[in-house]
Each structure stands twice: as structure tokens, then as C-alpha cells.
């Protein structure tokens, strides 16, 4: 046998290379939506036998085939859906509460999203980690029957331990508690918070892999970036804030988070429950997971929609909603994002809006927590500025907020960044809010950063040394994976 292998090993290696390369190339050809992406991956696979196919298996697969809506199978949830259907917004209520042209944007959302616009919602904005974690811990301390938490990062630091201790205390009171942390995000602190929670009796798991034994292939490049906390089925938290100490204290990084009540809580719960069920196989059948809407009448309150995005059947939903918003804008588009690396479609939509006379202001941090991303962003600024967009570098502490306001009439908030990872590789959760007062509130939050920002000009970009600009462009090439 050893003689046979020593003689024919090149033939076996060639056969393995052909099989792996053919399978990988066919998968890239059939699944990639962008022709340049498909051609690029096929080139890598063909020019790097075996290695190219392995790289594609680790970093190239951007779709996860999984069954969803697991949380909605029970008769109890179907009964709740009948109650929630009363809050679905019809054309008459929508026209009464919003501007006419936003009807076209709602139509876009109705076609690309799997959740309706509902009335009867309330939302509160928190502008600091201190306020957010205080509010979270207060709700957890008052919980009576069920807590479901999904997050990207849950550090084992003073803030992480504070939230963990609240969850453990709730579990000891008899509250059902389930916590899902992304397998990559769980590695941000060592040792992981997962063991601490498990030792405290909390049901806990890592999304898309195990913290100790590695990530799940071929989906290792796909992550849950969602931040969802649902307490007792009637109050939820959502936004951009992870659970970590860096957002607290006098020198804290900034972020924006939100507490919501109303029918949209059921949609947020369903999203997190699906992710938990995918990872663990467990459903949510018991009375501890009951959902309630008990404080607002249909037609009252804010009009909200949960926007679910991810590398599954919800691929690029967030991008489609934003494209629709940019197309209906008449006066202003204000964007605040820590990682602004839009693809050519989103960049073109912003440039087109600016050419139509819409004021487009984009605020990014002066000092980014990810230096490579900051350099890659520089490479995209010049064409946008030439087309009339204004880009601002916000001074002061790093701001992790993801905020978008159109015409001071529509707001978009949540976990999505404006980069390829959030648009195609991450599982994200956002809210679109059709309410002028709330849009102005978010606009004021953006304006406070705008007041401390400096304008990025073509002259300042072009005056940088050539090697710096080349470095920016090289990193820009890798932007889909930063």
C-alpha cells in the first residue's frame, strides 16, 4: 500500500484538487449575486488548487440555508398573531400619520421585509451605556417569567458581570433565562462570559460555533450582529450597543440604544427565538414565553417595522430598505455610522440623491476603534464628495451609533453598519420608524455629533502622501471582509 501511495500520490492530489475546485467554483457561480465577486472567487479557486477551495469554504460562503419561523409554529403564537393583526397599519391610518411620499417606502418594506408596519408602539432612546445598562438591569430585575437575550459581544468585564449577575439572579427567582452570544463575539474577552452564566444556571449557547472548539464550517464568516433583549414578552431593547464596559464612564465610547414596547416586541422576540432554535433545537412553548400587548390601542402610538437582515432568506433586506429611503428623500439624508463602507449600489443611490438637490450628510468617527476600517473608508470618500455628499469626521470619543434620518420624517436605527459585512455577512436587526417627532429626536442626536465634526474636503484627501492613499485603496479592496 505504501508503495502504491508513494507512486500515485500526485494523481490522488490532482483528483482531490479537481473535485474541490469544481465544487467550489460551481457554488460561487451559482450563489454570488455580483458578477465581479463570482469571477474573483472562481479565479482564486482555479489559480490556487486546493488552497483556493479551502479559502472559499472559510470566507467565501455568504448564505446560510436554515429553516426559520420556528418560534411561530405553536398554536399559542398563532393566537397572538391574530391579536397583533389588529395593529397592522392599513392605508388610511398610514396616510393620516405620515407624509404621502412615504407610502412608496412602506410599499418597498412590505415587499422585501417579512414583518408589517404596526401601530401601538412606544420607543425610548438612550444615548449612553450607563443609561442603557441601568435600564436593562432594571427590567431584568423586575422580570417575572421569561428573558431572552441575543448579542454579538458580551464581555466578562465589570459591566458584563453586572448584567450577568442580574440574569443569574432572575434565574434563581424562577425566571426562564436564555442567552445567545455570537461565537466570534464571545471570544472578545477571556475567559468567556458563557461559562460564568452557565455556572449561574442560565441557559446559554454560542451562535454558529463553539467558543472552545471553533466555528461552524462553511459558515465561519457569518455572525449574528443582533442586539436583542426581550423581557417578559412586553418590553425589548434593540440598537447598536454590545454589553461591555467600554461604553460606560467619563471616557466612554458613545453609542445609542432603544427600549421599545408594543406589537414590535413580538417581532423582535420571534427573530431572537429563531436564532436560538436554530442553534439549540429548542422551542418556546411554555407559559414563561408568553407575549403581551397591553398598553396601547390599535392606531395609536408610533408606526414601527422590524427589519430582519442576514445571509439567509433575508439577504440584503436592510440595503433594500435604505435604497428605498434614499430614493424618496426630498430634502435631507443624515447618516451616522462608525463603519461607512457602502457598496457601489448604496454609494450610487446617495450620489444620485445629492445630485437631485438632497442634502446628504454622512458622519463618521475621527478616531475609529478599527484603524484598518478607517483607512478603507478614506478610499470611498472622494467620489461621494465629488457628487455633492458632505462627509464629516466627528471628534471626541469614538461613536458606535448607527442612525439614519430622511427628511426629518423617517428614522432607521438598529445594529446595521453601512458596510458589506452588515449588508451581506451579518445577521442584523433594525427598526424603521414612521414618525416625525421621533425622527427629529434622532436627528438632534446626529446634530450633536455634527456640531463637533470637521468637514472632509477633496483638498485634504488629495494632500495626503501617495503611500497613505495607496494603503487606503489596498485596504478598500478587502473591505467586504473587514
TrEMBL record:
Annotated PLD phosphodiesterase domain residues: 220-247, 395-422
Origin superkingdom: Bacteria
SMART domains registered for this protein in UniProt: PLDc
Transmembrane intervals: 6-26, 38-59
Pfam family, one: PLDc_2
Principal cellular location given in the protein's record: membrane
KW Repeat (keyword) present: yes
Record EC number: 2.7.8.-
Location in the cell: Cell membrane; Secreted
Keywords for the protein's UniProt record, in alphabetical order: Cell membrane, Lipid biosynthesis, Lipid metabolism, Membrane, Phospholipid biosynthesis, Phospholipid metabolism, Repeat, Secreted, Transferase, Transmembrane, Transmembrane helix
Enzyme class: transferase
Record keyword Membrane present: yes
UniProt membrane topology term: Multi-pass membrane protein
Stored InterPro entries: Cardiolipin_synthase (IPR022924), CLS_N (IPR027379), PLD-like_dom (IPR025202), PLipase_D/transphosphatidylase (IPR001736)
Record-linked PROSITE patterns: PLD (PS50035)
Function as written in the Swiss-Prot or TrEMBL entry: Could be a virulence factor.
NCBIfam families (UniProt xref): bac_cardiolipin
Protein name, as recorded: Cardiolipin synthase
Organism in which the protein naturally occurs: Rhizobium alvei
Amino acid at each position: 500500500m505504501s508503495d502504491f501511495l508513494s507512486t500515485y500520490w500526485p494523481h490522488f492530489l490532482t483528483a482531490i484538487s479537481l473535485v474541490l475546485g469544481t465544487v467550489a467554483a460551481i457554488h460561487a457561480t451559482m450563489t454570488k449575486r455580483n458578477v465581479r465577486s463570482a469571477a474573483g472567487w472562481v479565479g482564486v479557486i482555479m489559480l490556487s488548487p486546493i488552497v483556493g477551495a479551502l479559502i472559499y469554504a472559510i470566507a467565501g460562503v455568504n448564505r446560510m440555508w436554515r429553516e426559520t419561523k420556528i418560534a411561530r409554529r405553536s398554536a399559542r403564537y398563532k393566537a397572538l398573531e391574530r391579536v397583533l393583526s389588529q395593529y397592522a397599519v392599513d392605508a388610511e391610518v398610514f396616510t393620516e400619520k405620515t407624509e404621502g411620499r412615504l407610502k412608496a417606502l412602506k410599499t418597498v418594506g412590505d415587499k422585501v421585509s417579512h414583518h408589517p408596519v404596526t401601530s401601538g408602539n412606544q420607543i425610548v432612546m438612550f444615548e449612553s451605556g450607563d443609561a442603557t445598562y441601568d435600564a436593562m438591569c432594571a427590567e431584568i430585575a423586575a422580570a417575572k417569567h421569561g428573558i431572552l437575550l441575543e448579542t454579538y459581544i458580551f464581555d466578562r468585564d465589570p459591566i458584563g458581570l453586572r448584567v450577568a449577575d442580574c440574569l443569574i439572579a432572575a434565574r434563581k427567582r424562577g425566571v426562564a433565562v436564555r442567552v445567545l452570544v455570537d461565537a466570534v463575539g464571545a471570544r472578545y474577552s477571556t475567559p468567556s462570559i458563557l461559562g460564568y452564566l452557565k455556572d449561574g444556571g442560565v441557559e446559554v449557547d454560542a451562535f454558529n460555533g463553539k467558543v472552545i472548539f471553533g466555528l461552524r464550517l462553511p459558515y465561519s464568516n457569518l455572525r449574528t450582529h443582533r442586539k436583542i433583549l426581550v423581557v417578559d414578552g412586553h418590553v425589548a431593547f434593540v440598537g447598536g450597543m454590545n454589553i461591555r464596559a467600554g461604553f460606560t464612564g467619563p471616557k466612554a465610547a458613545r453609542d445609542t440604544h432603544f427600549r421599545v414596547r408594543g406589537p414590535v416586541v413580538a417581532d423582535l422576540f420571534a427573530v431572537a427565538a429563531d436564532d436560538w432554535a436554530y442553534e439549540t433545537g429548542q422551542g418556546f412553548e411554555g407559559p414563561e414565553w408568553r407575549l403581551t400587548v397591553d398598553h396601547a390601542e390599535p392606531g395609536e402610538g408610533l408606526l414601527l417595522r422590524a427589519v430582519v437582515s442576514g445571509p439567509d432568506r433575508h439577504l440584503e433586506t436592510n440595503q433594500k430598505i435604505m435604497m428605498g429611503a434614499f430614493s424618496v428623500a426630498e430634502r435631507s439624508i443624515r447618516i451616522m455610522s462608525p463603519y461607512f463602507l457602502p457598496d457601489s449600489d448604496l454609494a450610487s443611490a446617495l450620489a444620485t440623491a445629492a445630485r437631485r438637490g438632497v442634502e446628504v450628510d454622512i458622519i463618521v468617527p475621527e478616531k475609529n476603534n478599527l484603524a484598518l476600517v478607517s483607512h478603507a473608508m478614506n478610499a470611498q470618500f472622494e467620489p461621494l464628495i465629488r457628487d455633492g455628499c458632505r462627509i464629516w469626521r466627528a471628534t471626541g470619543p469614538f461613536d458606535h451609533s448607527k442612525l439614519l434620518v430622511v427628511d426629518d420624517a423617517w428614522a432607521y436605527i438598529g445594529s446595521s453598519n453601512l458596510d458589506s459585512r452588515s449588508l451581506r455577512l451579518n445577521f442584523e436587526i433594525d427598526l424603521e420608524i414612521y414618525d416625525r417627532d421621533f425622527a427629529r429626536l434622532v436627528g438632534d442626536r446626529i446634530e450633536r455629533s455634527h456640531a463637533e465634526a470637521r468637514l472632509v474636503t477633496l483638498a485634504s484627501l488629495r494632500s495626503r502622501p501617495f503611500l497613505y492613499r495607496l494603503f487606503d485603496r489596498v485596504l478598500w479592496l478587502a473591505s467586504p471582509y473587514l
